[in-house]
């Protein structure tokens, strides 16, 4: 008897997987990573990484989830009892990420409301740390910050309500609304950005190729790192989402759509971000290289400054920018949370309602730490460790176990080819068993050397 939840439509699955992939990583990580790693020339290692690691692993995770019809721990355990822990490891990392990813969405909600009257004032950095986050000295805890706490509670209420509603009625419907809306809002912002004076200088700086850079191993590592994080690979997410696919589903084609869709959004974000940075550099009379930023600094310090200076529609553009962060963030947070909720449901055979209440509830409670006055210090540390060691490490273990220990490549390939239009050739197995392990292995060695020596 088939009792597992299922997506209602193929588009629903594609939008949910794309929703997981398209997130803060596309908007605030990709543009600065590309700029710092060869600019226009970065697209060579980036495309290489997409085709030899990103899409092959996405196909692998989709196939594992669809074939074994289980969340990551269950799917791995059905493949081989001894491999269950890999799924739990991914689910655990997903759990940790969910606790702070939610906090950033909460900030973006606040900032979308500040946009209307440019409530962050002239000193946007001072505003973020002193007025909004009320940051305490390192190690000091001074209770909750209500301005963060309230939107954070809203974030969890929305996410848990969506997950409670289930795969078809919750996750699928949410993504069918969020993702098209996100694309429209974002297109509007990018087109607006392109009309700003100085936009072309920004784009020139962004696309200016430094071909010497691609001779450097660091740049290749950065490209693979970006692809992994950006496609939400190795976090138990894509396996869980694929486990809700019907028996007959085109896996390979879906993976290509999600992979290229995510990269297109990334490119669009790069154009929008650098057009605006070009405008800002022009206003300040400095070079684009002096204003480049990424991460929290880009979104919550630099962008508010830019929004202050826009020639028209400041409030609206600011609102749309932060609303885009909120939509992109929600669709990713839903997927990270579902990754471990589905694992709990499968393992303990409890109802979705209970898993959402206890599993999701625990994340929500832990995330409240970041809404205290000392919270930001914590967030930086946790994020650093997850990014440095979580992504590449699990990815490496996953491909090595699947390709070398369990020798599953042939099995999975036959399964995917049996139900997909595009037929996987030898390149797929080669990418999984040779290219990806080598690149990720080098990446791990490099990270350990950098961090431990
Ligand atoms: N892929 C998302 C992004 O590019 O922002 C980020 C992400 C989502 C990473 C979910 C990890 C994750 F579990
Ligand atoms: Na992404």
From TrEMBL:
Its protein name is: Sodium-dependent transporter
InterPro entries registered for this protein in UniProt: Na/ntran_symport, SNS_sf
Assigned GO CC terms: membrane
Return the CDD domains for the record: SLC6sbd_u1
* Positions of transmembrane segments: 12-31, 43-64, 85-109, 144-165, 177-200, 220-244, 256-281, 319-341, 353-372, 384-406, 427-450
Ribonucleoprotein recorded as keyword: no
Cellular location of this protein?
Answer: Membrane
Q: Which UniProt keywords apply?
A: Membrane, Transmembrane, Transmembrane helix, Transport
Q: How does it sit in the membrane?
A: Multi-pass membrane protein
Question: What Pfam families would the database entry show?
Answer: SNF (PF00209)
Glycosyltransferase as UniProt keyword: no
Superkingdom is: Bacteria
């Amino acid at each position: 008897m088939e009792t597992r939840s299922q997506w209602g439509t193929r588009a629903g699955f594609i939008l949910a997987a794309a929703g997981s992939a398209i997130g803060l990583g596309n908007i605030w990580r990709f543009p600065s990573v590309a700029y710092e790693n060869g600019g226009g020339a970065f697209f060579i290692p980036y495309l290489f990484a997409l085709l030899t690691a990103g899409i092959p692993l996405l196909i692998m995770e989709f196939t594992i989830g669809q074939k074994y019809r289980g969340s990551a721990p269950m799917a791995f355990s059905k493949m081989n009892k001894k491999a269950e822990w890999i799924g739990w490891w991914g689910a655990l990392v997903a759990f940790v990420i969910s606790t702070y990813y939610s906090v950033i969405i909460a900030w973006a909600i606040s900032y979308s409301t500040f946009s209307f009257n440019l409530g962050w004032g002239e000193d946007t950095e001072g505003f973020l740390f002193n007025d909004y986050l009320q940051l305490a000295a390192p190690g000091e805890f001074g209770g909750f910050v209500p301005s963060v706490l309230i939107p954070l509670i809203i974030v969890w209420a929305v996410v848990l309500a969506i997950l409670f509603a289930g795969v078809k009625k919750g996750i699928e419907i949410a993504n069918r609304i969020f993702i098209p809306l996100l694309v429209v809002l974002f297109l509007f912002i990018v087109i607006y950005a392109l009309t700003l004076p100085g936009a072309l200088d920004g784009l020139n700086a962004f696309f200016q190729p430094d071909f010497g850079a691609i001779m450097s191993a660091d740049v290749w590592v950065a490209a693979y790192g970006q692809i992994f994080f950006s496609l939400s690979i190795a976090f138990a997410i894509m396996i869980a989402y694929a486990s809700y696919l019907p028996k007959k589903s085109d896996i390979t084609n879906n993976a290509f759509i999600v992979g290229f869709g995510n990269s297109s959004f990334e490119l669009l974000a790069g154009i929008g971000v650098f057009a605006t940075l070009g405008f800002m550099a022009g206003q300040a009379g400095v070079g684009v290289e002096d204003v480049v930023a990424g991460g929290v600094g880009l979104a919550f310090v630099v962008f508010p400054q830019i929004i202050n200076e826009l020639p028209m529609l400041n409030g609206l553009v600011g609102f749309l920018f932060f609303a885009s962060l909120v939509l992109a963030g929600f669709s990713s947070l839903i997927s990270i949370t579902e990754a471990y909720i589905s694992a709990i449901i499968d393992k303990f055979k409890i109802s979705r309602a209970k898993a959402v209440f206890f599993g999701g509830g625990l994340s929500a409670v832990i995330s409240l730490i970041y809404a205290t006055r000392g919270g930001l210090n914590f967030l930086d540390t946790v994020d650093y460790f997850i990014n440095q060691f979580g992504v590449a490490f699990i990815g490496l273990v996953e491909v090595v176990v699947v390709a070398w220990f369990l020798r599953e490549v042939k099995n999975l390939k036959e399964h995917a080819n049996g139900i997909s239009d595009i037929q996987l050739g030898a390149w797929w197995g080669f990418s999984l068993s040779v290219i990806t392990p080598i690149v990720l292995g080098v990446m791990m060695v490099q990270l350990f050397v950098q961090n431990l020596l």
